[in-house]
Specification:
Helix 2 packs antiparallel against helix 5, helix 2 packs antiparallel against helix 7 and helix 5 runs parallel beside helix 7. The protein has one domain. The chain has 7 helices and 2 strands. It has 124 residues and is mainly alpha-helical. A two-stranded antiparallel ribbon has the order 1-2.
């Protein structure tokens, strides 16, 4: 039996499967362990569906919409969560991010997560 979080993670990984940048973005958010959990985020920016051919359940994140809501003050999001969401959206969807600004505010743990995501996005 899987928990709701495990099911969510499986769905996100299934949707990103085969694309280095998408996988890196998803794994960054999963590893960060914060942004995917609030109900307001799940209800507005996560979409789950079932593949008609395989029956596999996948979940995608509307990262551009989430960052737009963040920019407009319509997504309550503490500092590190906002920064990690911006980096993940940039890696996975090409949403522009000011790395100098974002990276300067990350602690050592989150910096390591971002470095791992960048390496994963390039296939390493």
């Amino acid at each position: 039996m899987t928990t709701d979080d495990e099911s969510l993670h499986l769905g996100l990984r299934a949707h990103a499967c085969g694309r280095h940048s998408s996988t890196a973005a998803v794994e960054l958010l999963i590893a960060h362990r914060r942004r995917l959990h609030p109900a307001d985020f799940r209800d507005r920016f996560l979409f789950t569906g079932t593949d008609f051919d395989t029956g596999e359940v996948t979940t995608c994140i509307d990262s551009p919409a989430a960052v737009m809501a963040l920019d407009r003050g319509r997504l309550p999001c503490p500092g590190s969560e906002a920064r990690m969401l911006r980096v993940a959206a940039s890696i996975g969807e090409g949403v522009p991010v000011d790395l100098r600004e974002v990276l300067a505010e990350l602690d050592a743990v989150n910096t390591a997560l971002v470095a791992r995501a960048v390496a994963r996005a390039t296939g390493h």
